[in-house]
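User: Can you help me understand a structure? I only have the sequence.
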Amino acid sequence: MGRFWVILIVVIVLALLVGGGVGGHHVSKQNDFCIACHAYEKVSWDHGDHAFTNCLDCHTKGLVTDKVQGARKVYLMFTGQNNPHNDPPSQLHPQKTSDNCAACHMTSEVEANDPAFFAQHTGMMENFDTCQTCHDYSGHDPELQALRFEAPRFAQED
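Assistant: Let's start by predicting it. Here is the structure, written out as tokens:
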């Protein structure tokens, strides 16, 4: 095989990988992608305080971390080690989650429109580590989240 063909094949493979990566990123940041596995979270989200937001407005730790963790969860699901229908809320990155809250709730616009709220929460954040200290179920209705079930595929046999 000539050098031209080797270079052409490498370029085509790289183009397919880059195109697949960009396409995969675009698809995986859509709400429909998330709720394909997290249906009860979607129901509780629709009835919670943040129904107007997108999943990744709150649930992101950064592009690379999100993609690595997502690939890990897909692997665990397909190997039967994780049930996406009863996946407990992640508490792995509480500060990042809190930072995501502040990105919407602690802006200069909020300070101008609701100075009492802003002052109260600024003071609270001096005494507490994260927003979740007080707002444990923010964004989701806990009663609806509690309805999550063990999918038959993941049910333990007696």
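Now, to help you interpret it: The longest helix spans residues 3-28. The chain has a mean pLDDT of 79. Let me know which part you'd like to focus on.
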